[in-house]
From TrEMBL:
<keyword id="KW-0472">Membrane</keyword>
<keyword id="KW-0997">Cell inner membrane</keyword>
<keyword id="KW-0812">Transmembrane</keyword>
<keyword id="KW-1003">Cell membrane</keyword>
<keyword id="KW-0476">Mercury</keyword>
<dbReference type="Pfam" id="PF02411">
    <property type="entry name" value="MerT"/>
</dbReference>
<keyword id="KW-0813">Transport</keyword>
<feature type="transmembrane region" description="Helical">
    <location>
        <begin position="52"/>
        <end position="69"/>
    </location>
</feature>
<feature type="transmembrane region" description="Helical">
    <location>
        <begin position="92"/>
        <end position="112"/>
    </location>
</feature>
<dbReference type="GO" id="GO:0015097">
    <property type="term" value="F:mercury ion transmembrane transporter activity"/>
</dbReference>
<protein>
    <recommendedName>
        <fullName>Mercuric transport protein MerT</fullName>
    </recommendedName>
</protein>
<comment type="function">
    <text>Involved in mercury resistance. Probably transfers a mercuric ion from the periplasmic Hg(2+)-binding protein MerP to the cytoplasmic mercuric reductase MerA.</text>
</comment>
<keyword id="KW-1133">Transmembrane helix</keyword>
<dbReference type="InterPro" id="IPR003457">
    <property type="entry name" value="Transprt_MerT"/>
</dbReference>
<keyword id="KW-0479">Metal-binding</keyword>
<keyword id="KW-0475">Mercuric resistance</keyword>
<comment type="similarity">
    <text>Belongs to the MerT family.</text>
</comment>
Length: 115
């Protein structure tokens, strides 16, 4: 599996996290940027789909974590998972994106502190 294919689950997880957080973080960010209007209230239309987005985030990040933390013996020689430096970079990117996804997914609970 090449580098692009192994990054797809993390990218998909971030996109799903944005979808899960758009109903809460989206209006706040738009207001902070000075954008206003009655149409901002329509962003709450994604609220019924929030559990599906969250499940998708967990599923994709679980798969990504499994791919990143699998034993090196399973890697083909010369691939990204067999190179220790690349493996460390991928782990750092995984955890950074997992933190961002967690912030977006949990925004429904802490956003009220800032609004």
């Amino acid at each position: 599996m090449d580098q692009k294919e192994s990054n797809l689950p993390m990218i998909g997880g971030i996109i799903a996290a944005i979808g899960a957080g758009v109903c809460c973080v989206g209006p706040l960010l738009l207001l902070l940027l000075g954008v206003s209007g009655s149409w901002i209230g329509n962003l709450t239309a994604f609220e019924p789909y929030r559990p599906l987005f969250i499940a998708f985030v967990v599923l994709l990040f679980g798969y990504s974590g499994w791919k990143i933390y699998r034993p090196v013996e399973e890697c083909e020689p010369g691939t990204a998972c067999a190179i220790p430096k690349k493996q460390q970079q991928r782990k750092a990117i995984f955890w950074l994106s997992a933190i961002v996804a967690t912030i977006l997914v949990t925004s429904n609970y802490w956003i009220l502190l800032f609004a």
